[in-house]
Design goal:
This protein is an alpha+beta fold and 302 residues long. It is built from six helices and 15 strands. The two termini are 33 Å apart.
Length: 302
């Protein structure tokens, strides 16, 4: 696995085209695949997904950026050291924040991180937040503000259900308040896929091995534009419904899937003319159901 901090190491060679040539049965036009998650199954057609991708990618990539930034914080170990800016986080209530576990890798429960509210062109002063739960198995961690509190207006709404084909936006902040935006199309929710051994080994250097998390559900986001370092832990935001779909967890190319034949609809979308050759990358997010389940565990102990 390669987290969002390591997108530059991704390769986009069309190896999967050759590797899958013998499996023509599931490459037939109109083939579908069941995406399983949260006790439900969804069957999506690759052509439909490709058309949704085409429609969504024609929208200006900056659309939705303002909304996403207003509902996020930047997470760092020491705010005075820019090299230790790890990623983003999302307020769950006026004092609790969720982020990706690998964002706080190296910290223990009880240790302090620092968060700054996002604003276009401006960051708030750093606020100390204690690590109150780490869950490497789900790639989620929770921080509690020590003295400060957020205004209720910065706490986003979470989507009750994922909408297949919806356009989502992701944003990250830098210490100088610059904003970088990515966008994508929701392709479904499924069990966390197994990754190739090389991908898993590389990711193990940065945190919990992804193949040890394969039983957890994840949201699939087909990216319109590549994500760079710093998006991890931030909001995957449904622009139309104005709610958070999931917490950004990792990105990979289709070639990094150990069992690509299980995701025929995604491949079908990739191989159509609608898909940009430079954007054959999938973002994975931890969905609301998992986020809230662990959040309830945290709040019960506070």
């Amino acid at each position: 696995m390669i987290y969002a901090e390591h997108i530059d190491t991704l390769k986009y060679e069309p190896i999967v085209v050759r590797a899958l040539s013998a499996s023509k049965r599931w490459l037939m036009l109109g083939a579908t695949v069941a995406l399983f998650g949260c006790g439900m199954s969804q069957t999506h057609q690759g052509k439909e997904l490709a058309i949704a991708y085409q429609n969504n990618s024609s929208i200006q990539p900056a659309e939705g950026k303002d909304m996403v930034i207003n509902y996020q914080v930047m997470v760092s170990v020491r705010p005075e050291d820019n090299k230790l800016i790890n990623g983003m986080g999302i307020p769950l209530n006026p004092e609790l924040i969720v982020t990706a576990d690998h964002v706080v890798d190296g910290l223990e429960v009880g240790d302090l991180a620092y968060v700054q509210l996002g604003r276009l062109g401006k960051l708030s002063q750093p606020m100390a937040a204690e690590v109150v739960l780490r869950s490497p198995e789900t790639d989620l961690a929770y921080l509690k503000l020590v003295e400060s509190r957020f205004e209720p207006a910065v706490v986003p709404k979470w989507c009750e259900d994922e909408q297949f084909g919806s356009r989502v936006a992701m944003s990250k902040l830098t210490p100088d308040s610059r904003v970088t935006t990515a966008s994508g199309t929701v392709s479904g929710i499924t069990k966390r896929p197994l990754m190739t051994e090389s991908f898993n080994a590389e990711a193990s250097k940065e945190g919990f091995p992804p193949n040890n998390m394969h039983s957890e559900p994840v949201s699939w986001i087909l990216l319109h534009q590549a994500m760079s370092g710093g998006f991890s832990g931030g909001a995957i935001y449904d622009v139309n419904n104005q709610c958070v779909v999931a917490v950004s967890s990792l990105i990979a190319s289709f070639n990094d899937l150990a069992e690509p034949d299980l995701y025929g609809s995604v491949y079908e979308a990739i191989k159509t003319k609608y898909w940009a050759d430079s954007s054959k990358v999938i973002a994975f997010g931890v969905p609301m159901q998992t986020v809230m389940k662990l959040a309830n565990t945290v709040t019960a102990k506070l």
